[in-house]
């Protein structure tokens, strides 16, 4: 019997809508935002056929855009046979319903689009639960009158996820499902904490950055066995991946690749992915990967910093890693950036440029949390001697009669355990000056 080919949904035709409000949000900035929105639409499976921009100080409470623009948009949707209209600004449930009735096609805002992309990208069981939770919380206030038009949809953007399975479900069942998902995610988080408890003694570093900045590519370069999925797409990575990064003998860190951030990242996603983002909270320091080739990279840096504050990251141990320097055609631009960001590291993850300097920078930052100790034990005390050689950086050894004196450096996360193991064997004064 011949294999039946798998049919995919045809790509949808989309119009993008942006609303600048000068001078706070100039038209030029909204045009940049719509370029990113087009990238998001492409990732979700839509081809952008046209964009519409209307300058408004105040949003229309019924349609967001002016009623004259609604008529203009209707003509565009008919002329270009458009399937979906995507707004860069968030819409209220009422505005979405009114626009869909007026335009006779699907209408979705930026938040809904990002949720759709997360639904497409989610692979692991945990990621799928996190995305479903975010979708349900987004849809809950939109249930009234929502199911009528959803029942007419045949696929495409905005239909992957709970919208397909919750059409006949009332608010009570949706709330029950939300509560169930939250409990399951708490259980998964507790199980993860138990399984990774042994990692706490090892320094931890997390990669953060705007989506598509090259975090997964850098992860694969630094840890060749990482196998992190890397693609020129937004949100290619949703699941945290952690690998060992060897810096030198008995000095290593655990490097974690995390989900990328984006402008106006939906709050429901931030909340539902909080357990995944715990890797960022628990890291000793962060590598902030920046796409230097993007014209708005400094605004992207501000978005990442704002999101980090939102999830509760308070420490300042962050290394800025400017990626894709090979995409800069003018060498003077790079010289100027080095002068403006003297503490940053400039690399190309894809081409492996300057990764040695990045490793040295990581080692330097890790080294700040190491203390130097000296211990004198009997030469037959193999347990302590072996443990120190295996888990610390032994920097000196001197034999004195039947005793051996070891000088070693140990990370703060392992210091308490080492002190408990050595007990009173340490010399008076214990710690010597940090190196």
Automatic annotation (TrEMBL):
GO cellular component, one term: cytoplasm
Record: residues binding GTP: 209-216, 235-239, 257-260, 323-326
Protein name in UniProt: GTPase HflX
SUBUNIT field: Monomer. Associates with the 50S ribosomal subunit.
Function of the molecule: GTPase that associates with the 50S ribosomal subunit and may have a role during protein synthesis or ribosome biogenesis.
Main location: cytoplasm
Record gene name: hflX
Cofactor: Mg(2+)
Keywords tagged on the record: Cytoplasm, GTP-binding, Hydrolase, Magnesium, Metal-binding, Nucleotide-binding
Xref: PROSITE patterns: G_HFLX
InterPro entries: G_HFLX_dom, GTP-bd, GTP-bd_M, GTPase_HflX, GTPase_HflX_N, GTPase_HflX_N_sf, P-loop_NTPase
Family stated for the protein in its record: Belongs to the TRAFAC class OBG-HflX-like GTPase superfamily. HflX GTPase family.
Cited Pfam families: GTP-bdg_M (PF16360), GTP-bdg_N (PF13167), MMR_HSR1 (PF01926)
Residue intervals of the Hflx-type G domain: 203-370
GO molecular function, a single term: GTPase activity
Protein location: Cytoplasm
CDD domains tied to this protein: HflX
